Amino acid sequence: MKVTSAGLFALVSLLPFAAAQAPIWGQCGGIGWTGPTTCASGSTCTVGNPYFSQCLPGTASSSSVSTPSGSSTSTAPGSTGSTAPAPGSPFTGTTYFLSPPYASEVAAAAKLITNSATAAKAASVANIPTFIWLDSVSKIAPFGTYLSTASAQQKSTGQKLLVPIVIYDLPDRDCAALASNGEFSIANNGAANYKTLYIDPIVALIKQFPDVKIVAVIEPDSLANLVTNLSVAKCANAQSVYLSSVTYAIQQLSAVGVTMYLDAGHAGWLGWPANLGPAAQLFISLYQNAGKPSGVRGLATNVANYNALVAASPDPITQGDPSFDEMLYIQNLAPLLGSSFPAHFIVDQGRSGQQNLRQQWGDWCNVVNAGFGTRPTTNTGSSLIDAIVWVKPGGECDGTSNSSSPRFDAHCALSDAAPNAPEAGTWFQSYFETLVTRANPSL
Ligand code: BGC
């Protein structure tokens, strides 16, 4: 698999947000929006949902189609709409589209590093493909810009591009922890909002670009929490909404050709012998009840975690778990899925370069002394594993260490969690610098 950097150059020429008029695919309105409300010529400002309006190609006479929720979205004349995902691994025959927001974060971070050799290594991370997290409604409009960029780039180079995304905005998100609590709550119409304000607009955008291949990780932690954390009241309360929301997401995204891997926790979570069977049953029942959407390709493991794909020897914290690394977890889970669920996997290795760092296997927050890991590749050493990937953008924080924050989680103040950590998802410069200097293989 090759990596392209042309997306970065295309981005520079688009730089949408400072313009007096919003560009095609740019945001042009919505609750809280303070930017331009008129659109570049050839596009029309169209209400996607109460939170964003977007400049869609075409004039006001462009056709209008009903989304599954019944809301109306303008679509460019000539767009072809839904398509079945191509069978097989989405990583075959494609080149990654590089994440523009991560490239910006990394470029800014590298400039802050005074040692020129380290700064050059840091800057090179922008060329390593990393997933784009759609972790709130506000990320949807920029995503439209990326699809447009990818489509144009693909047309000019003839090289098929793969846009890697994470679907991550469930109501009552992160039910067993606090650090990544999200914007929707079940008590406040979250189940309906997830569909109409989040999934439907994403699907409507993807429909505009049937030529761009998209791979998605679906809702990190959600199903794993339903396997092991139903004793937590917030998870028990969220169970049915998580199931119906994930079902809706995979059905709708499948209908527009997205290839999906459902999040499956990691070896130290669902890999324990007592959890493997219940986990397999949950994945199978969800998939079958959803009508076996063809876009579901398999499972994603180790997302935002720190485990090795293949550990040289068991880390002492794995305490006798026969699945002491991700390869073993996958090999132990796959037979339980049998032919009832597609047993293909992707494994996050973005921050797994250094091992034996933690005091407990359950420590997940900004683990000290972590280094960037194996680069994304389809050379995985297992026919079960489609690709080694970087899902968590290394340098973005796992959770704040500030105990007075409403999203403070005690895991982020443990002695093996890096101190002075900002809010989840925001940039953590010192942590990034350690990932760079401790990268294995080195950068
Ligand atoms: C955060 C998200 C963020 C993601 C990737 C999660 O822990 O809650 O906001 O997008 O990590 O950095």
UniProtKB/TrEMBL annotation:
Keyword vocabulary terms for this entry: Carbohydrate metabolism, Cellulose degradation, Disulfide bond, Glycosidase, Hydrolase, Polysaccharide degradation, Signal
GO biological process: cellulose catabolic process
Domain CBM1: 20-56
Region described as Disordered: spans on this chain: 63-87
Gene3D superfamilies noted in UniProt: 1, 4-beta cellobiohydrolase
Active-site positions on this chain: D174, D221 (proton donor), D398 (proton acceptor)
Top enzyme class: hydrolase
SUPFAM superfamilies listed in its UniProt record: Cellulose-binding domain, Glycosyl hydrolases family 6, cellulases
One Pfam family this sequence matches: CBM_1
Record carries keyword Disulfide bond: yes
Signal peptide range in chain numbering: 1-20
Residues binding substrate: W133, D135, H266, W269, N305, W364, K392, E396
Enzyme Commission number(s) of this protein: 3.2.1.-
Entry GO terms, CC: extracellular region
InterPro entries: Beta_cellobiohydrolase (IPR016288), Beta_cellobiohydrolase_sf (IPR036434), CBD (IPR000254), CBD_sf (IPR035971), Glyco_hydro_6_CS (IPR001524)
UniProt keyword annotation of Hydrolase present: yes
Family under the similarity heading: Belongs to the glycosyl hydrolase family 6.
Name of the protein in question: Glucanase
The species this protein was found in: Collybiopsis confluens
